[in-house]
Amino acid sequence: MVKIIDTHCHPYLNKIKNKDDLINNFFSKDWESMIVIWTNLESNKQVLELTKKHSKIYATIGIHPCDIGNLELDKTIEILEKTYIENKDKIVAIWECGLDYYWMYKDLENSDLNDNEKKEIIQNKKQSQKDFFIWQIDLAKKLNLPIIIHNRDSKDDVFDILVERNFKNFVFHCYSEDLDYAKKLIDFSPKCKISFSGIVTFSSAKQVQETAINIPIENILAETDSPYLTPTPFRWKEENEPAFTKYVIEKIAELRWENIEYTADIIFKNSKYFFNI
Description:
The chain is α/β, with parallel strands linked by helices. It contains ten helices and eight strands.
């Protein structure tokens, strides 16, 4: 029997499907476990409640770069560390940390600010994201946890910070870059993980598919990032859910011309080892 771990999902964010129903749907198939991600200080309670209800649901702690807002860095790190200490049996990684430059530009598109004002805002927001990213990496070192990296239009700065902090215990979530960048990450950290979401099933995602074909299978994880990025064949038809991890893994096996059982087994073992679950 194929064993599956959805290494990245947000069932509490589903708007159409009831979170209890989709969690039960996943486990009704005798699949292994899911890692539920919280992105800000408000969502942590919901996530930790899920881990207490289900023995095979695990959680992460961290602040998404788009959720930093006016948070105080020192106090936020203290809260994250305290949360880990109180729930260490169920928290398996620091997340959702990284950099996201897409939205900071997008939010200023229709602004009446002049170019210099926009430039200053961008610089300040980038620095704030970098500060939070670096501190969360340092917290991961202190707690001996891996980090799950969010990257959008920021890959060079993400890589530079990883090198600067000499931090190699990471997974790139929802990978969307090209093969050369994946090779660069693996050269720096041979045991790092590249996690593929429903994007790998999209016919337009050629560079992601090329990456899935050509990197070592030992570096591959699978996720849904549900309720987002519903994989083919349900894209545009249904809200994504953890049970759809199966279609991500099937696509990876198809692309690599591998037996589905073999691919699923290796990805399952990668996930168990990386998150120590």
